[in-house]
Design brief:
heterodimer; A: alpha+beta; 16 strands; B: mainly alpha; two-stranded antiparallel sheet
Chain lengths: ~425, ~180
């Protein structure tokens, strides 16, 4: 070994450290930009990215993440500032692990592209599994997305279990070939991400975001006008065993009131305040399933779902001003609509129980019995009382009129008699 | 230019220095590898090239020779672009396999151009090492004695019209 190495190596290290802010950090900034490029996106040139290697922090101002559609840029996500604290040690292993992500003044645009697919959400073409994602409404989208992620998690678990199991390993996906831009005629291979390739983990341990508007895939009353998001252990790719995750979203919508959403491992909660039922009837949400009932009114809805293999959930709704105007109703639907409409918008407390599986949820108790006994019964009683009252009043009014008429008749008769008596006077 | 001159002087000094032939051979091999491998790619530093540089610093090889061969082979590599491309495209399977290894992918081995270049470097490195070992031995056993004899002759004033050239050569080779 060279004796001079004893001072050469520390000297080289010092030079490297001195180069960090001049070379390494600008290079890391360019890596952040190119990482967006790998996902088929682009960070706008106006966006400023500052990387602090020793602080493990990335600060982005005027964030503008965009994609190119038919050669034209389209902003998908914007934010005034974004601060990301990286777990440097975990990142050295090839993962992307962020301890803290704070977004302020954010806005998003998830409108469908011309082909109906949704940016950042629709899986890449090679992983769409023959499903025409462009024609799915939100409900179907959620179901398909759930299936897609379940299958991916199963694959990931199987891959992690492979070294200890006796089952033969799945054939690795071939790496993707791309032309090398720095060398004419050469090409380069990029490792194929996914369960059979190098399993990269993306994890955000704490997320805090607030912002303005979010354009949802279709133009519905659910378009978000302001929001706050809190998240814990959010990630995809290879996941840590035994860690729970959570995402709480509070939104103010354009035409669907206040909407609070909470998600976690095997749980989901939706809390909507003053939700106009007409908003739920938008065809983009669930096709004609809800729209055909022609429901109107306001609802405070709490949807609470928990699942492992089986789904267990409740829907609690307090509906005021409910009116039904079904399109081409069956006889039963017409009767229900008639009863409901007779309530004249009286408040209803309606609790439904859900079961089945997450892919195929079913209503195990539609709550109609309780509804009839309680709210509907009370409302019906009240409606009957009101109706009775109306009838009574009507009758009383009729009686008054009759009496008045009778009185009038008696007066007329008296007048006529008086006229008879006065006949001949003055002749 | 002056830097090149200094490096060349250092290289020549190596031949006449106390450095063992293996030290010069190892330096030539490492310098050749460094010359044919990129130290920094678009994706960041090349782990393989950095490891070779680290070895060159830690192992007691002749650093001057490392830098001389690094520079010379870098120049040679520019001329080898078409050959490297042919070699790299011929080793397409190796490039695909390298994509599955983080270190090799980061070292540019999944890039057929850089892979070809690295393979040429790997082929040339032992040749350069062997050649330098032989040159060192031959220089020290044959040429050095002659030059020393010439020096003595020059000092004795027995060289007629070539005295200036001989002096310059002796000065250049540090004899």
């Amino acid at each position: 070994m060279r004796r001079a190495a004893l001072w050469l190596l520390p000297l080289a290290l010092l030079v490297l450290l001195a180069l960090v802010p001049l070379v390494i950090e600008p290079w890391l900034s360019s890596k952040v930009r190119s990482a967006a490029g790998l996902a088929g996106l682009e960070i706008a040139p106006e966006t400023q990215i500052a990387v602090s290697l020793f602080g493990g922090r990335i600060t982005i101002t005027k964030l503008d993440l965009r994609e190119y559609v038919e050669g034209k840029p389209r902003s998908l996500m914007q934010a005034d500032t974004a601060e990301l604290d990286a777990d440097v040690l975990a990142c050295l292993g090839g993962d992307i692990v962020l301890d803290n992500v704070v977004l302020e003044g954010a806005s998003g645009d998830f409108r469908r592209r011309g082909d109906g697919t949704i940016p950042l959400i629709t899986p890449p073409p090679e992983e769409r599994g023959g499903i025409d994602w462009s024609k799915l409404d939100w409900w179907e989208y959620a179901r398909k997305a759930y299936e897609y992620h379940q299958n991916r998690d199963k694959d990931a678990d199987a891959t992690e279990a492979q070294p200890t199991s006796a089952t033969p390993a799945k054939p690795a996906k071939p790496p993707r070939q791309r032309p090398a831009h720095d060398w004419n005629g050469a090409h380069t291979y990029e490792p194929e991400p996914g369960p059979a390739g190098p399993a990269m983990r993306v994890l955000i341990r704490r997320l805090s975001a607030s912002g303005r508007d979010i354009q949802l895939p279709d133009d519905t009353p659910f378009a978000v006008t302001s929001f706050t998001v809190k998240g814990l252990n959010l990630g995809w790719g290879r996941h840590e065993q035994g860690t729970d995750w959570g995402l709480d979203v509070q939104t103010q919508t354009r035409g669907a009131g206040t909407l609070n959403l909470g998600f976690g491992a095997g749980r989901a909660k939706v809390n909507a305040l003053a939700l106009p039922l007409q908003a739920l009837a938008h065809p983009a949400l669930a096709g004609e399933t809800i729209a055909r009932h022609g429901a109107s009114g306001l609802a405070d809805v709490v949807l609470d779902l928990r699942w492992a293999e089986r789904l267990d959930g409740t829907v609690q709704a307090k509906i005021t001003g409910l009116k039904l105007a079904p399109q081409a109703p069956s006889q039963q639907e017409a009767q229900v609509a008639q009863i409901v409409n007779r309530l004249d918008g009286k408040p209803l407390d309606w609790t439904m129980k859900l079961g089945g599986t997450p892919q195929d949820p079913q209503v195990t108790d539609n709550g109609l019995t309780a509804l009839v006994k309680d709210s509907l019964g009370d409302a019906a009683k009240q409606a009957a009382i009101d109706e009775g009252g109306k009838l009574l009043n009507e009758q009383l009014r009729k009686n008054d009129k009759v009496q008045q008429l009778q009185k009038n008749e008696e007066v007329q008769k008296a007048q006529e008699k008086a006229k008879d008596l006065l006949k001949g006077w003055g002749k | 230019m002056y830097a090149m001159y200094k490096i060349l002087r250092g290289f020549i000094k190596a031949l006449v220095s106390a450095a063992a032939p293996w030290q010069i051979a190892a330096a030539a091999a490492l310098g050749t590898l460094l010359g044919f491998m990129p130290l920094w790619l678009s994706g960041g530093p090349s782990p393989l090239a950095c490891a070779i540089l680290l070895v060159a610093i830690v192992v007691n090889c002749h650093l001057g020779t490392v830098f001389v061969f690094w520079g010379l082979m870098k120049l040679l590599s520019f001329a080898c672009d078409p050959v490297a491309l042919l070699v790299g495209n011929g080793l397409d399977g190796l490039a695909q396999a390298a994509a599955g290894s983080g270190a090799l992918h980061a070292s540019g081995w999944a890039h057929t151009g850089w892979l070809g270049m690295a393979v040429i470097g790997l082929l040339l490195a032992p040749l350069a090492a062997f050649a330098m070992a032989r040159v060192t031995v031959l220089f020290r056993t044959r040429l050095r004695d002659r030059l020393l004899a010439n020096r003595q002759l020059a000092l004795a004033g027995k060289i007629g019209g070539n005295g200036f050239v001989a002096r310059a050569a002796l000065w250049f080779f540090d004899l």
